[in-house]
Amino acid sequence: MKIAVTYENETIFQHFGHTEQFKVYEIENGAVVNTKVLDTNGSGHGALAGLLASIGADVLICGGIGGGAQMALREAGIKLYGGVSGSCDAAVKAYLAGNLDFNPNVKCNHHGEHHHGEGHTCGSHGCGGHSCH
């Protein structure tokens, strides 16, 4: 099993679509056997789900994430645990212990930095320039 976590300075990066790195944990028999930090090379929203699928990730732990990115992860068969903050290592340890505190209804809220048109919702793409919960 592989668990990917949005990563910045040992903590969970809070904007999935803008993450520059993932910390990837290889799990065997319920324990971490290897970790590595993977650069995203600026892939961006939808491409990040493809990157995770290409490395064989089974689980993603992240902060905020938009609806389009959530859909791409579902289509890739990657289980999402969003709305998580704090230490990457602690989150993976909690996940393995069965007590990860996550938000099954994680969503994003826009502040209009780069979106045009009325009635915009997060469900149409993997959101970026906003705060996520």
Task: Compute the number of strand runs.
Answer: 8
Number of helices: 3
Going by CATH, what is the homologous superfamily? Answer: Dinitrogenase iron-molybdenum cofactor biosynthesis domain
Point out poorly predicted stretches. 110-133
Strand content: 25-35%
Order of helices and strands: EEEEHEHEHEE
Known CATH architecture? 2-Layer Sandwich
Main beta sheet strand tally, sense and closure = 6 strands, mixed
Structural class category: alpha/beta
Q: Roughly how many Å is the radius of gyration? A: 14 Å
> What value does the average pLDDT take?
83
Overall spatial form: globular
Q: Into which percent range does the helicity of residues fall?
A: 10-25%
If you had to describe this structure to a student in words, what would you say it looks like?
The chain is of the alpha/beta class and 133 residues long. It has one domain: 2-Layer Sandwich (Nucleotidyltransferase, domain 5), CATH 3.30.420. It has three helices and eight strands. The chain has helices spanning 45-54, 67-75, 88-97; strands at residues 2-8, 11-12, 21-28, 31-39, 59-61, 79-81, 108-110, 130-132. β5 (59-61), α2 and β6 form a beta-alpha-beta unit. α1 (45-54) runs parallel beside α2. The longest helix has 10 residues, at 45-54. The chain is globular and about 30 Å long. Residues 110-133 have low confidence and may be disordered.
